[in-house]
Amino acid sequence: MARFSSRSLSSLPAGRGTRVAGKKVLVLILAGGKGQRLGVLTHERAKPALTFGGTYRLIDFALSNCMHSGLSDVWVLEEYQLHTLNDHLTNGRPWDLDRTHGGLEVLPPSPDTLTGTLEDAGNADALHANRHLIRSYAPDVVVVLSADHVYTLDYGDVIRHHLQVGADVTMVTTDLPDGEDGRRFGNVAVTRSGRVKRFDYKPDEPRGGQITTEVFVYDAPALLRTLDDLRRDTPAGRGLGDFGHALIPAFVAAKTAHAFPLDGYWLDVGLPGAYLRAHQDLLSGRSVALDTPDWPILSSSIPRMPAWLAGEARVSDSLISYGCRVEGRVTRSVLSPGVTVEAGAVVEDAVILRDATIRAGAHVRRAIVDEEAVVAARVDGGDGVAVIGARAHIAAPIRGDMQVEPGRRWRRGSRPTVTGDV
């Protein structure tokens, strides 16, 4: 079980904690968003708990990067479907964060949490709501991470660069990935010295191809001071919004924001199409290596039997997790633990999550099938992505960019409740 903060960390000596270049570092992982753009995949789970690559969860990337970067004081800020994430976090042991002092702390919602209670509340409000805990812990540097991106990065390199240039905030940037819409991200322009001279948050007309990865390193006093200033200047009944609405623009206007370019793969998987694309990149070798010896992605998982492939099974260019039973054909797909593909079934260009069953004669193409769903008909996303919710039972064909709610029985004549990107 995850260790919950008592919300009274002031008793911890200020001298404790991870240090980089002599500075005390605190990591905050923002894991409270509802992930509404993922539609039925996040109706019953927190987005950071969504399975990736068969046996991992999205939050594993941020936690593993922390462990390999030598950062051991990590707080996870939660808000939505807490149990789905806490069941995975346990006590932080998979990431070597189960410590007597410091380590993993889980911060559930509190009465003063602004998110969800004020208009325009967002992740900047989550930081403001926990400002008293940050002050009590007395860090020099605060690293703020999102929990739904696929990438590897040594945060220590970013922190040392941040301290060297004397920035109030350093944002990790990357080139806009192929096929992605620049309107989904914070767009930046950078001077030759690396200072951010322009920042546009989710602009209608993006300028340039550099975007933020939602990895931020802050000078702690500057962050707290700016949050207080923004809260004081924000009308009652309104929130601070997301980091891109007011927080980052305040530092850019003060000319104290710098950029650190990410050299390597990065993808935001906040849409069904991007989630499927990330798995296609994984299968083609374009993504990060999940099991590289010097930087493995770490996770907690329930042991199961090895995968079983029948004599008539045909599997190519796919990842098959433990506990799977395959008798049909699987091509360019990822099967999470416990998936069954019966004889005569076909799965191609798909992601099948835990304990789902693809019945004999079914054909699943360009689709995401959530946990414990049963597919007994053709599901074809066409040029889009079909998404089948957890425990749904598909007994009639589905075609196109369609989503089926969790637990629903889909028969002939059924009508979708969700269509397209959300």
How does this model look, in words?
The chain is of the alpha/beta class and 422 residues long. It has 2 domains: 9-284, Spore Coat Polysaccharide Biosynthesis Protein SpsA, Chain A, CATH 3.90.550; 308-419, UDP N-Acetylglucosamine Acyltransferase, domain 1 (3 Solenoid). The protein contains 8 helices and 34 strands. The strands form 7 sheets. Strands 18, 19, 21, 22, 24, 26, 28, 29, 31, 32 and 34 form an 11-stranded mixed β-sheet that branches. Strands 1, 2, 5, 6, 8, 10, 13 and 15 form an 8-stranded mixed β-sheet that branches. Strands 17-20-23-25-27-30-33 form a 7-stranded parallel β-sheet, with no helix packed on it. Strand 1 (18-20) and strand 2 form a beta hairpin. The relative contact order is 0.12. The model is unreliable at 1-15 (pLDDT under 50). It holds the Pfam family NTP_transferase. Belongs to the bacterial/plant glucose-1-phosphate adenylyltransferase family. Residues 28-283 form the Nucleotidyl transferase domain. This is Glucose-1-phosphate adenylyltransferase family protein. Keywords: Glycogen biosynthesis, Nucleotidyltransferase, Transferase.
Summarize the structure.
This protein is α/β, with parallel strands linked by helices. It has 2 domains: 9-284, Alpha-Beta Complex (Spore Coat Polysaccharide Biosynthesis Protein SpsA, Chain A); 308-419, UDP N-Acetylglucosamine Acyltransferase, domain 1. It is built from 8 helices and 34 strands.
